[in-house]
Design a protein that fits this description.
By secondary structure, this protein is of the alpha/beta class. The protein contains ten helices and 13 strands. Helix 6 runs parallel beside helix 7.
């Protein structure tokens, strides 16, 4: 169909509003998807046909709107044929106008981002024998419209299909070192070069490794850490009442000090006594009803950071800077990352991080956070 009555200016504006993508399926139409060769595969289609006897033609509107951008859609060959030949009745005027409107509004919103860009970090490691499930699409859905990915691909820190499991003796040392090396190579160097200004973090892994990831992120650019929701299943923050955290001091004073973090589940003191013995001062950070899907809002996560910072300061003031703090965590993934971000290597106590492993029979020591950690081999 000739479109000589559509001005070049109108064509250019339509291409810009559609971002070079089909306004039906969103597929790029400036290159061939199979060969990746760049050439024009687009069609300029009419919502109301340019002729009275054409698809969705109208006695008066066909002539009036035939060169008007409000009546034009940028389409791929498949969907141009679909709306004009194969399924005209299934594509009435109102439906096509709505598709055009939504596509062009989405393009405008997502390209008008300026300082709203963020580099996406995906960190997934097996929890027990279950592989993590992290996707670029879910991250994008959770970020927008507050932030938009700075690059087409995420930064992936974990090892896919790792043969090691968290009951292997060498697991913690090797996985921790791998995380450090990948972080240095893929994140820290880009930060130092000025290529990263903000990161959005999506992580599923054993809690000690999430804490280590937070420790690594703490000294770089601003970051937002996301939480996988169970109901509904999404990474997007929900509209939900903010949660209150409370720190409970120990009943008795002893030289050995532990921090019981009972948030996603309740950690009984007996399980900690089984590891460290009965002469023990246990501080407890908890909420009214610990369960695995309580952390619904970024405000609650911010509240956790503040409570955690206060807890570190109170425990250090009570027991002294040189005392080692033994940490037994049961908390959401985002809280574990933020725990590592809050910890300050020069100001805070040395911390031994434990992980619960039922195959081994309870909590086991994973590794220690020290002021001079982590010694990396280049």
């Amino acid at each position: 169909m000739s479109i000589s009555y559509v001005s070049d200016t109108t064509k250019f504006i339509l291409w810009g509003k559609a971002a070079g993508r089909c306004e039906y399926c969103n597929r790029p139409i400036y290159f061939d998807n199979l060969t990746k060769c760049e050439f024009n595969t687009a069609y300029i289609a009419h919502i109301i046909a340019s002729r009275v006897d054409g698809p969705r033609g109208h006695p008066t509107e066909s002539e009036r709107l035939r060169g008007d951008i409000s009546n034009l859609m940028l389409l791929c060959d498949t969907h141009h044929r679909l709306i004009d030949k194969d399924d005209v009745e299934g594509h009435p005027v109102d439906l096509l106008r709505d598709m055009k409107k939504k596509h062009e509004e989405r393009v405008f919103l997502q390209t008008n981002v300026s300082n709203k860009q963020s580099h996406v970090i995906l960190y997934g490691e097996k929890v027990g024998y279950n592989n993590s499930n992290l996707t670029w699409e879910n991250a994008f859905e959770a970020m927008t419209p507050e932030k938009y990915p700075a690059e087409k691909q995420p930064i992936i820190l974990g090892i896919r299909n790792s043969a090691l499991c968290d009951d292997d003796p060498e697991y913690w040392e090797k996985e921790r070192r791998n995380l450090n090396l990948n972080f240095d190579r893929l994140v820290r160097r880009q930060v130092e070069d000025g290529h990263i200004d903000h990161v959005s973090v999506f992580a599923i892994a054993p809690q000690p490794l999430l804490i280590e990831l937070g420790r690594l992120i703490s000294d770089i650019r601003p970051a937002e850490v996301y939480q996988l929701q169970r109901e509904p299943t999404t990474w997007r923050w929900q509209n939900h009442p903010e949660v209150s955290f409370r720190l409970i001091p120990p009943v008795k004073d002893h030289d050995v000090v532990a921090l019981n973090i009972s948030l996603s589940a309740t950690v009984s003191d007996d399980r900690i006594f089984n590891v460290l013995g009965p002469k023990l001062s246990i501080w407890t950070l908890t909420i009214d009803s610990p369960h695995n899907d309580f952390l619904k809002t970024k405000e609650s996560l911010c509240g956790f950071r503040k409570c955690m910072r206060t807890a570190f300061d109170k425990i250090k003031a009570k027991h002294g800077h040189n005392t080692v703090l033994h940490v037994f965590p049961a908390m959401p993934v985002s809280a574990a990352v933020e725990f590592g971000r809050v910890w300050q290597p020069k100001a805070d106590m040395e911390m031994v991080i434990y992980d619960e492993n039922r195959k081994i029979g309870g909590f086991v020591e994973a590794f220690t956070l020290r002021g001079h950690d982590f010694l990396r081999k280049e």
